[in-house]
Write a structure and sequence with these properties.
59% of the residues lie in helices and 3% in strands. It contains 18 helices and 3 strands. It has a 3-stranded antiparallel β-sheet. Helix 6 packs parallel to helix 9 and helix 11 packs antiparallel against helix 12. The chain starts with 19 loop residues before the first helix and ends with a strand.
Amino acid sequence: MTFPANGRHPSHPFARRGTPRVAQARRRDAEYLLRVPNDAAGGPVTKSSTQGSGWSTRDWVALAGITTLAGLLRLVRLGDPDVLVFDEAHYVQDACRYAFGMAEVCLKWVRPAYEVHPPLGKWLIAGGIAGFGYTAVGWRISAAIAGTLTVMLLYLTARRLLQATGPALVAALLLAIDLIHFVQSRLGMLDVFLAFFTTASVLCCLYDRDRDPVERLSQAPVRQRHPWRFAAGAAAGAAIACKWPGVFALATVLILVFWWECSARVSEKRLIAVIRTVREEGLSIVASLVITPLLVYVLSYAARYPPTLLTGRFWADFARYHQFVWLYHSRFGGSHTAQSPPWSWFIPAQPLAYFHEYARLGCREVAAFASPFWLLALLAVVLITIRAARTRSLGDAEGVILSGFALSYLPWLLVARNRSGIFIFYMLPTVPFLALALAHLATRMRRAIAVWTLLSVAFFVFYYPRMTAVAHLERLPVHSRACAGVSEYPP
């Protein structure tokens, strides 16, 4: 390769933007991408390969089937028990006030306002209350829909990453029957919305990545359009607007987008590729994955303070509120019978009892704990990490699994050092990545993963009565011990 007289490479990151040399460098990157093999697909990177190996009728059937199954599981007997369960006592009453103001209907169970989380999740619960009334179905329907859609989004994500119908169906099925995700999808709480928006943000990043490499890299930066990247930023902002741990979703998509953009400039040395990415994509990344999430987060408060949104009073109240919330969570302590350390979340031992009573309908409860596939999925994550370290290469599927798992789970190990009130359902945004890890393993160990998936289905069926408040649980010999010595679990 020859260099110009000044010794500068034609694609040098400090070359003037829009010059023919920069355009030639971008076209060379695109042509190089078409020649080199892709680790995830096992073939050349083309528009068809980046979008998956041929979406077929079988995929439509699988997507419709698994979405319908997930929806039916979550909607059947959704209104039972017909009382506030666990933290519904906080979020549902706030949502009712959002929907109806201070109407008398919201005073059915009197509790003070619990404004220690952003409002978007409670607005989503309020939408169900506005449509179906202040009933158990009304305050749970939004969570059931979000849980069902998360299963659908995970199928699409796994199909794009693994480029096969079978593994994608395994991932979606494991999420559909995951014990914690199933129970949380049937309660008026916030964590299922966090998992939904986290999965949506990653999928939108994949859509942005899967543009034709020639189209993506041959255009000048000023002509770049990234609608899916902005959608990913909006989804990540919505995750933060449900609960602050949504910032882990934003960190995940930021890392993935930057990594993919650097990888697209493979014809350069690593440092030059990073500098070119910052110069060519920095403005787009900041606009879509920093400013857009911030706007979504701030606007989620607009409906609570509409008259003062553009005034100094709003921003003063906004700052004081966030200071209060930060102090609340940083000092949150004490003990709770349902709390558990993050290191124990993978062990299917003591269940988390959301609801338990022994009354006119006999013994019944709503309880859940770690699904049996979590431990095997954790092993899959370890194997992926070891393989990446040995080969010093990382495919797209492995990158999504490792970054998603690390950024949604590992921070809780640090938080647990200074805070005691931590619960297993905080694991919910991590579960889709665990299902992805096991589905990725299924591409190499089909029979073993198929057997483990069937065992997970059997485990779900076995514990279904304990997760759905089935009446007279004491009459079932295998579950009668759950009723021993317990009269009622407090909300």
